[in-house]
Amino acid sequence: EPEVTQTPSHQVTQMGQEVILRCVPISNHLYFYWYRQILGQKVEFLVSFYNNEISEKSEIFDDQFSVERPDGSNFTLKIRSTKLEDSAMYFCASSGDLAEAFFGQGTRLTVV
Amino acid sequence: QKEVEQNSGPLSVPEGAIASLNCTYSDRGSQSFFWYRQYSGKSPELIMFIYSNGDKEDGRFTAQLNKASQYVSLLIRDSQPSDSATYLCAVNIGNAGNMLTFGGGTRLMVKP
Predict the structure, then answer these.
(1) Closest of A26, A18, A10, A23 to residue A68, by C-alpha
(2) Which residues of B touch A (CB under 8 A)?
(3) If you measure CA to CA, which chain B residue comes closest to A97?
(4) CA distance B25 to A30
(5) A23, A8 in Cβ contact below 8 A?
(6) Which of B88, B100, B105 sits opposite A99 (nearest CB)?
(7) Cβ-based contacts of B32 with chain A (< 8 Å)
(8) What does the alpha-carbon distance between residue B60 and residue B51 come to, in Å, rounded to a whole number?
(9) pLDDT single digits (tens) A49-75
(10) What pLDDT score was predicted for residue A87?
């Protein structure tokens, strides 16, 4: 069964460093997303990406964040200068024409 | 502010009983509704989606939608201990990009 895959599963970084989280969406899907979940809190939308551009982004997705689809399969989230409050699980998701999003297993980001 | 509200629980039911999980949403423009299951430390797993008023059944799961009351529910029949998880309600308001707004989740405990 096709699935969304994310790497790495756990990333530890120092405050102020740049991190890149990687995702391979389901191959025939059209929409790609990043969500995050701070420990014990709700899953929060960050950004959606369609047709090689951002289609929607939340207030969380400020200038420190960027997304890219560098080739036909990968979808990345970059955080330029990490802060302690960026520590969270980051989920990549993808969907087809409709809004049923399938989530990857997540990357746990720990900023120290 | 577009909100999705759920009782955090825990909701405790005996094995074999029906578990009833509820969700309300604030945006009348919401178009599609999703139930995800999330085991501790894992990613959300899509269980069901519903777009139209009424009931939709899939195996032991039934989703119910009432747009007039802005209410969506999930029934789990013949509950099993393996159903013990947090159930997340998510709503898509139809913006470009198909972003989902999640509730905080209801923790379900099924006791043998």
Answers:
(1) A23
(2) 32, 34, 36, 42-46, 49, 88, 90, 92, 95-105
(3) B98
(4) 27
(5) no
(6) B100
(7) 98-99
(8) 19
(9) 998 899 899 999 999 999 999 887 899
(10) 98
